[in-house]
Amino acid sequence: MKIVAANIFVVPVGNRTGVILELETDQGISGLGEAGIAYGMGTEATAAMVAQLVQSVVLGQNPGPVELIWSNLYERGYWTKGGGAITSAAMSAIEVALWDIKGKALGVPVYSLFGGPFRDKIDTYANGWWMGCETAQDFAKAGQRAVEAGARGLKLYPLGLMDPETVIRHPIRRRVDPGLLELAVGRVRELRAAVGPGVDILLDLGGGLHADQMRPLLRRLAHFDVGFAEEPMDPGAPDALRNLDRPIPCAAGERVYMRYGFHRLLGTGAVDILQPDICNVGGLAEARRIAAMGEVHNTSVSPHNYGTTLASVIAVQFSASIPNFRSLEIFPDFHLEPGYIPLIDQPVEQMLDQGRLPLPQGAGLGVSLRRSDVEGRLWRRIEGAG
Question: How many angstroms separate the Cα of 336 from the Cα of each of 9, 294, 312?
Fold first, then answer.
């Protein structure tokens, strides 16, 4: 079997943009992958990086030795060494598509290729339920509705403000007005009062504040039985976590790339929960290596997942294959976002049952691309022997 062509799609999907790769083989088996730059800047740069890596390294290759191809991408890409969002996300899309092909060729789910599954259902926590909320009372009412709909955990951005362009506006220059700190505490306090003690409340702090504001904020928020505080400090300065009091378990990893970045993060001794995004961390096998590193450091893994419906399927495959899994981020109301399209034939978001997801049973990733959803969104097609 050889890889003979690739299609790269850039597709707006709700509040994000998917960079989707489809690798084609000469035996009619295709594989799907996603590059995890679904929001922020860099979408088309990532698509271009995918195209260049496919053209230079992947076309004409037997897709079977996935790890060898990954190693060749890492060695020959040059800027791939040391990681970074664009290069790492491009490698992720290619690697996942190769595993999809391999699973389809062997007739087994991707998680079976890694010795899984460890579980038959995937625990999740809900994100996106807070859309349109501003006041503490807004968050309380929306959170209560989400729990009544089956959510077992709720993540919110206590310091975030709604923004028409970026959806959420995070703190800038690591400082906020004291009034926003009071609003953040009120949001969490009212949410906990509304949903009761049995719901996992998780906080995304968006890259954090200076320690003089973050320390007292975390101490106040700890009174509301918070499951974790995500990115309490700037991810570009992981060593700052060492000196931060942590009355709440610390989660990090959304903007950390490959095992090398996570080695440094774990070296701080200050992270309790790792959050690799399989679509930008280097792919499935790299994410599993990171999970194994976390196991040595006695940390659990809660994958970051803010991409298209394909990204959710990929994250489920990973979550089924590791022992130290905590819970998976999911957007139960994804279909309500303006401009949403399913993109694949069986979005897992539609299969949520009381906050849990069933495992896909099909070969490979177990899903197919909906051609009608990507029509007119082909960014580039590449053909040839490499």
Answer: 22, 35, 16
Name the residue among 281, 260, 263 with its Cα closest to residue 91. Answer: 281
What the block records as the tokens of 340 is 């949403």
Token digits for 181? 């700190």
pLDDT at site 386: 41
Rounded-to-integer distance, Cα 192 and Cα 143, Å:
9
d(CA 173, CA 159): 13
Determine the Cα angle at 33 with ends 30 and 39, to 5°: 150
pLDDT band at 381 (very low <50, low <70, confident <90, very high): very high
Average pLDDT, the chain: 96
Largest CA distance in the chain: 62
Rounded to two decimals, what is the model's pTM? 0.97
Segments in the chain forming alpha helices (H): 43-53, 66-76, 85-106, 110-113, 136-148, 178-195, 211-221, 258-267, 284-296, 309-319, 371-374
Rounded to whole angstroms, how far apart are CA atoms 176 and 156?
17
Q: What percent of the chain has pLDDT over 90?
A: 93
Question: Is residue 5 classed as helix, strand or coil in its secondary structure?
Answer: strand
Q: What whole-number distance in Å separates Cα of residue 308 and Cα of residue 192?
A: 29
117 upstream amide cis, omega within 30 of 0: yes
Give the Å distances, CA to CA, from 342 to 317, 365, 372. 19, 16, 10
Work out whether the CA dihedral 171, 177, 181, 182 comes out positive or negative: negative
**3-class DSSP assignment, residue 21:** strand
Tens of pLDDT, residue by residue over 87-126, are 999 999 999 999 999 999 999 999 999 999 999 999 999 9
Q: How confident is the model at residue 166 (pLDDT cuts 50, 70, 90)?
A: confident
**Mean pLDDT throughout 333-340?**
96
Burial class (CB in 10 A: 0-12, 13-18, 19+), 141: middle
- How far, in Å, CA of 194 to CA of 48, rounded? 46
Q: Using an 8 Å Cβ cutoff, are 23 and 101 in contact?
A: yes
The pLDDT of 355-373, averaged and rounded, is 96
